[in-house]
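pls ignore typos typing on phone
6-O-phosphono-beta-D-glucopyranose + seq
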Amino acid sequence: MNKFPKDFLWGGATAANQYEGGYNEGGKALTISDVTTAGSHTKPREITWIIPETGETGTTKFAFGGKMEFPKGAVPCVLDGYYYPSHQATDFYHHYKEDIALLAEMGFKTFRMSIAWPRIYPDLESDTPSEEGLKFYEDVFKELNKYGIEPLVTLAHFEIPMELVTKYDGWANRKVVDLFVKFSTTVFKRYKGLVKYWLTFNEINMMEFMTPMTVGVLDATPQKKADAALHQFLASALTVKAAHEIDENNKVGMMLAYQPLYGETCDPEDQLLALHVGQRQFYWYADVQMTGKYPAYKLKDYERNNVTLNLQDGDKELLESYPCDFLSFSCYGSGVQGTHENGGVAGGNGLMGRKNPYLDANAWGWATDPHCLRIACNQLYDRYHKPLFIVENGIGWADEITEDKQVHDDYRINYLRLNIKSMCDAINIDGIPLLGYTMWGCIDLVSAGTGEMKKRYGFVYVDMDDEGNGTLNRYKKDSFYWYKKCIESDGENLD
Ligand code: BG6
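k done
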């Protein structure tokens, strides 16, 4: 059987900070993305800052897997003379009707997008949300509903409000839990009947890296990371509770950045390393959000590193009572871990490992693994026994547009064909309950890792360059027609 179930949720995914734009319109306050410059494959992005006491300004490099060094007293801010890709992004804010019509034409059943928290609460402490912000997303959800497209809404996708950074030290502060739950409760109430699939924190485990971007903490120490994680877990549990109380139809998923990990050789040292990295980079986050319990290896790590798990009365019960309803994850490829001399470092969304000599990679070093999604689904379902949702998968490419506005992206079609086939096997051969699939960046948007425009993922080309110049006109790529056929045939026609 080479088909997907009739109710499979085919779609695509985006995030406000990379797609929405309108960064200072509709009363929205700044996020950390709004102070992050563009970079490239070889040049890291930077966060711009000021030290208010001295007036000194400067930049700090984005560090995947490393510590970002900010001078004492530095506060991120927008500075003249820099280009910030999130400000316009690819302007969903003004193009949402046109974009949703394109998604509908492809036959989308679902569309993943995120809500920018400071669009709803420009003042995080206020008791009154912004009507203009609420109305914008309501209009978007109604437009989606008009075409029968189910919104899949991420509550936090790297849209850390600036106020969180400057006033609270980000998620390291426990007070942020209440602020977030106020926000999630507000949107659950307002969008009752319009949205039923929700995700809490995008790639929650990416807080291992890039802590300013993911949890708003500038000077991350192991203790602060542990606190930030605990606070997001508590906020997740309270969010699940609120979602179910407000509407019994609501389903809340966690969101994990995942990749199956291979030991580079059958040397047990390589296998042990792969196990160790998998536990530390992915599993413990999912263990807490899906089972409500901290795993023993994580508690041992904390003990060894003198990190305190700052649980208060009632926290354990809360975590255990409100696990997430389903597990959603991003998965672009697999990873390799080894202890021997190796053939180089691979690319990937922060989850770098070693190069896999059996796989081909794109210009950014991200490799295509034909069995990746099937292996990922099996590993995650065997462990958590809850429905899965693949909410990011895709391939960035420097697409060329021809004079007659065509994009011949057979490399993307090839990548998707292999990945969709792999998912199909997971469902039909292995019996995995997979709710749906949202291809990352279905309409071209700005890269999170590099801030570039030229690293394009979409079925739809957006006319904009790396400096934000262009008409923002939309053009259908070859993959647009291919995905439409795929959806129409319930995933059977992948030619
Ligand atoms: C994921 C993020 O890590 O990878 C997305 O959730 C991101 O926000 C995606 O865009 C692809 O990464 P990049 O760096 O190519 O944009």
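The CA atoms of residues 154 and 354 lie 31 Å apart. Residues 222-246 form the longest helix (25 residues). more later
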